[in-house]
Design goal:
Layout lengths: L1 H18 L8 H16 L19
Helix pairs in contact: 1-2
Length: 62
């Protein structure tokens, strides 16, 4: 989920950088750093779904 949010933030940052404007003082660089933060949180495992205690991500039904 955080990776999707990071992609959206990166897209907004790229759009602002291409246009050369800022939204309420927030530039494209700020969106770049926010996107990197979200990707780092995603890589750390925060906000991921489907993790179980046993580490088995695929549940089998018997």
């Amino acid at each position: 989920m955080l990776a999707i949010a990071a992609a959206i933030v990166f897209g907004l940052g790229l759009l602002l950088d291409l246009i050369g404007t800022s939204i309420a003082g927030i530039s494209g660089t700020t969106f770049l750093l926010l996107g990197l933060l979200l990707l780092a949180l995603h890589q750390a495992g925060i906000g991921t779904a489907g993790a179980t205690r046993s580490g088995n991500w695929r549940r089998t039904r018997r």
